[in-house]
Amino acid sequence: AGEHAAKLTDLVGDRAGEWDRTGVLPVDLLRGLGADGLLCAEVPIEHGGLGWSSTDNGEFTAHTGSLCGSLRSVQTSQGMAAWAVQRLGEPAQQAEYLRRLTGGELAAVAFSEPHAGSDLAAMSTTIRQDGDSVVVDGHKVWITAASYADLVVVFGRYSEGGGAAVVVPVDTAGVRVERVPEPLGCRAAGHSSVVLDSVRVPSSAVLGAGAGVGLLVASALAYGRKSVAWGCVGILRACRDAAARHAATREQFGKALAEHQLVARHLANLVTGEHVATLLCEHASRAWDSGSPDSVISTLLAKNECARLAAEGSAAAVQVLASAGARDGHVVARAYRDAKLMEIIEGSTEMCQVLLAEHAVRALG
Ligand code: FAD
After folding, report:
1. ipTM score here?
2. Cα–Cα 20 to 30 A to 276, which of 168, 169, 183, 208?
């Protein structure tokens, strides 16, 4: 993974700020990383993946997150799509789709709708069985990476009962993808709405048919939460690095900023936040790798706390750099905007807190 991280550093170079300003990632870069298996590195080797552990992939995700939040977002979506196929797909579906997802095709995952955000049980997209095909109708919003995607994994209600996910190629008749204009952060992540109007795909594209909507969503979100948490570790690393460099070199009142105690406190908090976030992610990934039942709660805990630490840490980094970081495209300015979004996605802070509180009560027995 270390070798791939060094290569990624070279590939991104100093372009992340420009991608943020223009709102576009180079598609050839995405396809290249995808074809190297690096956008979903936990896919098993027999399916064309790299077969990395959650911890190794997490470290790599953190590295991506330290370089470019938009690229990390695309990586999270691809990994979540692959995980949905692994968890919900039959062996033949796994064989087909995982090879495509590790062969350069790009994917997005679509749960959210205009009237179903935190409350995903309210989703109204329909997946209707019709002979050997299914017909999909719905409106999905804020779908990360959809503007780059070849395939969208769409979640909805299944006509035969329960819910289902369906793998929809974006070039199918009836699919319309529209970019979200000027998002607050992760601006080059290709967030888009996806409108599905009588979209017909073969039944072989349906995953997890008949399972409860909540269960289907929870399986895919688990990967997303873990990936976002590691991405927040990356945000904290980038912020700690930029803040420490600036504080060590910029002088005010005749000494380095780092020698002013109130500034030094920001650096201490950044180091602590980065360390705590890393430990939480390592714990969650170890639980994931060992198949421990603790995996669900430790992933939730990591996502919730790492997003909070990244939002807090990035605000502190902007404070340390002050005017030097207060411009569009600067690493700490990007981190500040990107980190705020981490408190909203894959289960907002409030939704994570609701689930953690339920866990506390359940633990009483
Ligand atoms: P709402 O659900 O309307 O919530 C508004 C506020 O109320 C939030 O603070 C929320 O925490 C709070 N709230 C709601 N219900 C409760 C409650 N019961 N108790 C306490 N507080 C509550 N969706 C996808 O399907 N795929 C994607 O790839 C994707 N990527 C995204 C990327 C970005 C950058 C963003 C901003 C969104 C993305 N989304 C995606 C959508 C995202 O999942 C939703 O925005 C999120 O679930 C919150 O839903 P909402 O925005 O409708 O807010």
Report:
1. 0.99
2. 183
